[in-house]
């Protein structure tokens, strides 16, 4: 299909229904405390989702309070009250969402025979009657009712149509046909939506929603197929979190629609610049790391190691990128220096930190870089800067961690002392600090030594060997003036490794700032 705009076709708006705080939280080990739920909901509002499903109000007092607070605060977003086909659930959802400016009830019941037989232990006739009664009961309180026939894609089509007809007759305004087990293929999903919409009585009078799980890796593809079949709302989660293999990924769906909008003729209200911050916030709140190769928000999504790719990117970004990471709030660290990198990329990276290497020195830097890359696979910026300093007999690192001592215990606050060398002044100074943990105490010391307002954003620890002499690799990410910097270090002492990685990241921030200042002075 050619990438040309069909001017005769009107662009269709797809509603984004976010269920990160309900279905997403059902990921094993990913529960979010009520206070953090409210913080994430505020960010989802900034992201531009149309509907938020903040939780399952009947499940606990804390969950009820979170749903209630989110309903009160986010007056510009529609709130979905989730409930089983039970009066107690409906009452809780109605009460928790009563202060929302716009709200709906989201009622669900299983439709597949295997669920009816083994889970509900009810007949089709009984399920049909329950659905009628509970939708009618919920309609007393709200105008918008979303009905979900759980496990639709493994259900008898005629029974699904019976359920949908009954739901519409009782006042349902949105019909959700979920692929609860991530079982269907895209063609099957498209045909399902088209047939239900055209064959059910009143089927053309309601809106349709898709809720697809990712067990076979098809959640996003199936959501696009549902749109082709007539769905105008897609239920998603940030980072694709959710039961088992998760749900349709919000960021993947949104960026497919944005990147290929001239072909798809679709649009959403998602604010691209908030995508990465939302992803990071959910990952931290759930303690769920993001896979390196995760599309859109993974560490490797916009990073290139191949020398051919790097050379092309340095000449024109569009050679190997179809999206702009900075538009999504992702800092531009697209080139990863590894064994496949070329001289051009290495010289360019050093120049970004104000380190100029003559051509005759570049050969030695490159040779030492390749030797380290063969050993480690990836060479970080701080390691490259150190190689350049050793080759040119200079000390490019503005600050050097000389010594570290930590007093740890089981009850009291930890006390740390560090010695840091200021390379520009040639002096070493010692600093002390306290924290609830040893690393926090160390970071408080280092922050006194290095005058950058760097936020310690993230720490990754990797074991590189086993046994008593094992080494650990620390990867620290900081934020300074809205830019992210990453430092790494390897050491037997994991606290020392983390401290060195933090100093390395801070050095990058300092050097970047110094280079910008030099450019501004030159311009003046």
UniProtKB/TrEMBL annotation:
GO molecular function, one term: metal ion binding
Start-end of Basic and acidic residues biased regions: 10-25
Assigned EC number: 2.3.3.13
SMART domains: LeuA_dimer
All copies of domain Pyruvate carboxyltransferase, residue ranges: 14-276
Entry superkingdom: Bacteria
Main EC class the enzyme belongs to: transferase
Pathway membership, UniProt: Amino-acid biosynthesis; L-leucine biosynthesis; L-leucine from 3-methyl-2-oxobutanoate: step 1/4
The keyword Cell cycle is assigned to this record: no
Residues covered by region (Disordered): 1-32
Keyword set, alphabetical order: Amino-acid biosynthesis, Branched-chain amino acid biosynthesis, Leucine biosynthesis, Manganese, Metal-binding, Transferase
Gene3D superfamilies listed in its UniProt record: 1.10.238.260, 3.30.160.270, Aldolase class I (3.20.20.70)
GO terms (BP aspect): L-leucine biosynthetic process
Family: Belongs to the alpha-IPM synthase/homocitrate synthase family. LeuA type 1 subfamily.
PANTHER family xref list: 2-ISOPROPYLMALATE SYNTHASE 1, CHLOROPLASTIC-RELATED (PTHR10277:SF9), HOMOCITRATE SYNTHASE-RELATED (PTHR10277)
Protein name in the entry: 2-isopropylmalate synthase
């Amino acid at each position: 299909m050619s990438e040309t705009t069909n001017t005769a076709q009107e662009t269709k708006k797809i509603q984004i229904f976010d269920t990160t705080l309900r279905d997403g939280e059902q990921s094993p080990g990913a529960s979010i405390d009520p206070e953090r739920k409210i913080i994430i909901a505020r960010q989802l509002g900034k992201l531009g989702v149309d509907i938020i499903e903040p939780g399952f109000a009947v499940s606990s007092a804390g969950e009820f309070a979170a749903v209630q607070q989110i309903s009160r605060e986010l007056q510009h977003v529609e709130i979905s009250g989730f409930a089983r086909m039970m009066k107690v659930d409906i009452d809780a959802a109605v009460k928790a969402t009563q202060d929302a400016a716009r709200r709906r009830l989201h009622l669900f019941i299983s439709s597949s025979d295997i669920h009816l037989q083994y889970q509900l232990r009810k007949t089709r006739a009984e399920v049909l009657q329950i659905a009628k009664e509970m939708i009618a009961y919920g309609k007393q309180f709200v105008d918008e009712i979303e009905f979900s026939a759980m496990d639709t894609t493994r259900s008898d089509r005629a029974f699904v149509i019976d359920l949908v007809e009954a739901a519409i007759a009782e006042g349902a305004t949105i019909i959700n046909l979920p692929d609860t087990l991530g079982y269907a293929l895209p063609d099957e999903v498209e045909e399902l939506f088209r047939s239900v919409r055209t064959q059910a009585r009143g089927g053309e009078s309601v809106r349709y929603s898709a809720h697809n799980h990712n067990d076979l890796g098809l959640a996003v593809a199936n959501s696009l197929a549902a749109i082709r079949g007539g769905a105008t709302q897609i239920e998603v989660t940030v980072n694709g979190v959710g039961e088992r293999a998760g749900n349709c990924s919000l960021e993947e769906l949104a960026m497919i629609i944005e990147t290929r909008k001239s072909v798809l003729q679709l649009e959403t209200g998602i604010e691209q610049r908030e995508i990465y911050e939302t992803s990071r916030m959910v990952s931290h709140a759930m303690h769920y790391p993001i896979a390196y190769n995760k599309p859109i928000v993974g560490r490797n999504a916009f990073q290139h190691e191949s020398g051919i790719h790097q050379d092309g990117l340095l000449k024109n970004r569009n050679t190997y990128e179809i999206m702009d990471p900075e538009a999504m709030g992702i800092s531009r660290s697209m080139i990863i220096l590894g064994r496949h990198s070329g001289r051009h990329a290495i010289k360019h990276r050093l120049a970004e930190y104000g380190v100029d290497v003559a051509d005759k020195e570049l050969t030695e830097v490159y040779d030492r870089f390749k030797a380290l890359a063969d050993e480690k696979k990836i060479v970080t910026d701080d390691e490259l800067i150190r190689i350049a300093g050793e080759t040119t007999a200079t000390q490019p690192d503005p600050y050097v961690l000389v010594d570290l001592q930590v007093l740890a215990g089981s009850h009291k606050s930890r006390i740390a002392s560090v010695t840091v060398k200021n390379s520009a002044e040639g002096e070493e100074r010692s600093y002390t600090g306290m924290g609830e943990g040893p690393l926090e105490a160390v970071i408080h010391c280092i922050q006194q030594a290095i005058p950058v307002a760097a936020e310690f954003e993230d720490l990754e620890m990797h074991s590189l060997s086993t046994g008593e002499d094992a080494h650990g690799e620390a990867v620290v990410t900081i934020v300074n003036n809205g830019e992210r910097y990453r430092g790494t270090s390897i050491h037997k002492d994991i606290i020392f490794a983390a401290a060195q990685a933090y100093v390395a990241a801070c050095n990058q921030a300092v050097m970047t700032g110094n280079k910008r200042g030099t450019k501004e002075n030159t311009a003046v």
